[in-house]
C-alpha cells in the first residue's frame, strides 16, 4: 500500500467520522424538537398558563437531554471497550503468531484487489512500520489513536438535544397567548423540514421524502398530544 493510499484512507476515515458526528447532531436536535414540541403543545391543549408551559418545557428539555447524554455515554463506552478488547487480542496474536498474522494481513490485502506478490510486500512493509496499526486498520477498521470517546458523544448529544428543544420551548412561552400555538407549530414544522433536509444531505438520500417524513411525524406527534391535552383539560385532570 503506497503512502498516497494510506493518506487517502486516513482522509476518508476522518471525513466519515466527521459526517457521523454531524448526522448524530442533526438527529439529536431533531429528537429535541419533536419531543419537546409534543410536550409543550400537549400542555397548551390543557392550559394557557405561561408558567405551566415553561415548567413542562424545561422539565422535558432537562430530562431529554440528560437521557440522551447518558444513553450515548453507555453506548459509546461499550463500543470503546469492544475496540480496546479487539486491539488487545491483536497484540497477543502478533506476539504469539507473527507469521500467521502476516499471512492474514496479506490475505486481507489480496481480498481488496492486490495481487498476491504485491499484497505480501505491502503486508511486510506495513508490519515493519507498525504491525498493530496495520491490523487494526485493515482487519478491524479501527484507528488505535482515534478510539471512540464516550464523553465527547455524551456532550454532543446533550448539546444537540438542548439546541433542538429550545426552539419549541421559546416559541410556546414568548409569544402572546392567542398566537403562541400557531407560532410554535409553524416554527417546529419549519425546523423539522430543515433537519430532514440536513439528514438527507448527509446521508446522500432524496431530500423531499426525508422532509415530508420528518414534518409529517412532527405534525402527528403535536396533533396527538394537543388532543390529549384538550381532553385532559376538559375533564379537569
What's the layout of helices and strands?
Elements (H helix, E strand, L loop, with lengths): L2 H44 L3 H47 L1 H14 L4 H25 L9 H24 L3 H26 L4 H28 L3
Task: Describe the 3D structure.
The relative contact order is 0.17. The model is unreliable at 1-16 (pLDDT under 50). The chain has one domain (3-12, 20-234). The chain has helices spanning 3-46, 50-96, 98-111, 116-140, 150-173, 177-202, 207-234. The chain is an all-alpha fold and 237 residues long.
Radius of gyration: 25 Å
Report the biggest beta sheet as strand number plus sense, adding barrel if it closes: none
In terms of DSSP E residues, the strand content is under 5%
Unreliable residue stretches? 1-16
Indicate the mean pLDDT: 84
| Overall SS class | mainly alpha
N-end to C-end Cα span: 69 Å
Helix tally equals 7
Number of domains: 1
**Count of DSSP E strands?**
0
Q: Overall 3D geometry?
A: elongated
Notable traits:
237 residues; mainly alpha; 0% strand; elongated; disordered N terminus
Quick structural summary:
This protein is an all-alpha fold and 237 residues long. 88% of the residues lie in helices and 0% in strands. It has one domain.
Amino acid at each position: 500500500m503506497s503512502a498516497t493510499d494510506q493518506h487517502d484512507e486516513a482522509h476518508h476515515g476522518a471525513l466519515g467520522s466527521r459526517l457521523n458526528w454531524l448526522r448524530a447532531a442533526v438527529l439529536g436536535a431533531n429528537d429535541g424538537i419533536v419531543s419537546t414540541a409534543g410536550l409543550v403543545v400537549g400542555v397548551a391543549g390543557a392550559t394557557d398558563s405561561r408558567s405551566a408551559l415553561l415548567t413542562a418545557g424545561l422539565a422535558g428539555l432537562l430530562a431529554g437531554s440528560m437521557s440522551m447524554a447518558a444513553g450515548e455515554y453507555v453506548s459509546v463506552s461499550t463500543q470503546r471497550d469492544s475496540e480496546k478488547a479487539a486491539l488487545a487480542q491483536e497484540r497477543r496474536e502478533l506476539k504469539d503468531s507473527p507469521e500467521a498474522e502476516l499471512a492474514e494481513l496479506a490475505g486481507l490485502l489480496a481480498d481488496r484487489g492486490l495481487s498476491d506478490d504485491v499484497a505480501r510486500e505491502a503486508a511486510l512493509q506495513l508490519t515493519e512500520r507498525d504491525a498493530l496499526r496495520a491490523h487494526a486498520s485493515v482487519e478491524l477498521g479501527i484507528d488505535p489513536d482515534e478510539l471512540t470517546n464516550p464523553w465527547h458523544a455524551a456532550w454532543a448529544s446533550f448539546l444537540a438535544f438542548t439546541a433542538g428543544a429550545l426552539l419549541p420551548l421559546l416559541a410556546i412561552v414568548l409569544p402572546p397567548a392567542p398566537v403562541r400555538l400557531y407560532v410554535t407549530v409553524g416554527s417546529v414544522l419549519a425546523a423539522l423540514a430543515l433537519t430532514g433536509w440536513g439528514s438527507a444531505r448527509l446521508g446522500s438520500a432524496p431530500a423531499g421524502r426525508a422532509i415530508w417524513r420528518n414534518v409529517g411525524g412532527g405534525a402527528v406527534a403535536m396533533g396527538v398530544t394537543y388532543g390529549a391535552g384538550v381532553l385532559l383539560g376538559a375533564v379537569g385532570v
